[in-house]
Structures are given as C-alpha cells and as structure tokens.
Amino acid sequence: MALQAFLIGLIVFVGKADYFVGTAMLGRPLVLGALVGLALGDVPTGVMIGFQLELVFMGMQAIGASIPPDMIVGSVLGTAFAITTGNGIDTAVTIAMPAAVLSAFVVNLFYGVITPIMARSADKFAAEDNDKGISAIFLANGFLFDVTFGVIGFVAFMFGGDAVSALVNSIPAWLTTGITIATGILPALGFAQLVTMIVSKETAVFLLLGFLLAAYLGVPVLGVVCFAAVLVGVLMMAHIFIPSQGSALETEVDDDNEF
After folding, report:
1. 63 strand-pairing partners
2. Which pTM does this prediction carry?
3. CA 34, CA 79: separation in Å to the nearest integer?
4. Alpha-carbon span 52 to 56, nearest angstrom
C-alpha cells in the first residue's frame, strides 16, 4: 500500500512538472490514467477511466485569474480510487471533482501567497543582474509546487482508501443512478465549453456539418474526421479552380491591349 501511495504521489508530481519539461501534455487525464493503471496493475481500466475523465475536464481551462478545478490531482485520485474500489467511472467522477476543487484552493494559495513572496527574491536577483539566482528561484518555486501536490496525492491515497471505500459502499442506489446520468452530461458540457472558445461565423457551418453527419447519417467519428480532411484539402485547392477577381481583370486588360 505504501509503495502504491508513493507511486500515486510520484504520478501527481510528474503531471505537475511543467516547470521542468514544459507543456508536454503529461498532465492530461488520459496520460495520468494510464500511469495510474500501470502503478496499480490495471492499465486497461486506467486508460478507459482516463479517457472518460478527459471528456469531463476538456473544457476546464484557466482564463485570466480564474483557476479551474485541478485536473491533475482530480484525475489521478479519481482513477486510483476507481481502480482500487472496482466501481469504475462513477466512482472516478465522484472522487475526481471534489478532489479537483479542493486542490484548486491549494493552487490559489501558491499563486496568491507563496509565488509572489518568491518573486520578490527573483526581483532582487534581477536588480543585481544575477541570472543564476533568478533561475534558482524559478526552479525552487516549481519544485516546491510539484512536491506539495505529490505529498497531497500520497497522503490522500495512503490514508483515504478505506474512507473512500466506505463512502462508496454507503452511497444509495438513487444517488449512483444520478451520478451515472451526470457522468453522461459532463462530457457534453466539456465539449460545449470548448466550442464556445473556438466557434465563429466562419467555423460554425463546419461544426454543424460534423453534427449532421454524426446525428442523422450515423457516420462514426473517424468518418467525420476523414470528411473534414477532404474538405480542408478542397478548400486549400479552391484557388486553382476559382481565379481571384484581380487575376480576371488583369487578363481582360491584357486581351484588350493585344486586340
């Protein structure tokens, strides 16, 4: 149990390691789910739960000073407890969302208190033209941030397993049914939030086309992607078949001169 808890904490640390490896998508639920499955000896279940949590968290992005629920901690703990209790995605969502919301408070604590304090030290080093000092502060802040959430993951899994199991077993059937329904709604909400960020007058018709292909013609997702690829190719070659207005005018002038 202690080894598994350590691995869970390490996975949280890796998911938070953007300070060291850059934005490598290590914090996505699909990647974290696979890693948790590997640590707990059930990779297929970890991948499936990670994929479903990917849909749940897809539309949750930080906008300005707004901090969304912590996708990394929520995904790791949700997947871990879902595998250990054997109750699948219902348990994953039940655990992931509260854990993500609570972890977001710790993120706010870092961004609002700890990071500004360390930033003052970085400003001091900048005034002294000490680039090594600035780098040390930057790395120390990132390492402290990652280690803190790694410890949270370790403690939550180490001491929360029995409590979570008891909680899941005490959930009445009607609430489980409600959670199952909510699990089906959350991916749609995630897609809706994502669409609001990318939709425009120019792209709305293509989104509608994809919906019509899937909803009324029964085209699978892969088929919709293939249609989209062909449509992109046609649009890229459209200038070959439809000359611009300027080219037509130039041709007309040239013909008049030759006549």
Report:
1. 66
2. 0.61
3. 9
4. 7
* Residue 60 CB contacts under 8 Å (≥ 6 apart), including other chains: 68, 69, 71, 190, 193
Instruction: Give the residue carrying structure tokens 């018709």.
Output: 205
Span 31-81, pLDDT tens digits: 898 999 898 888 888 888 888 888 777 766 665 455 677 888 888 888 888
Q: Any residues with CB less than 8 A from the CB of 249 and at least 6 apart, and which?
A: none
Q: How far apart are CA 72 and CA 100, in angstroms?
A: 8
| List of residues 6+ apart from 59 with CB closer than 8 A | 189, 190, 191, 192, 193, 194
Tokens of 67: 């901090």
Encode pLDDT of 206-241 as tens digits.
Answer: 888 888 888 888 888 888 889 989 988 888 887 676
Structure tokens at 207: 């989104």
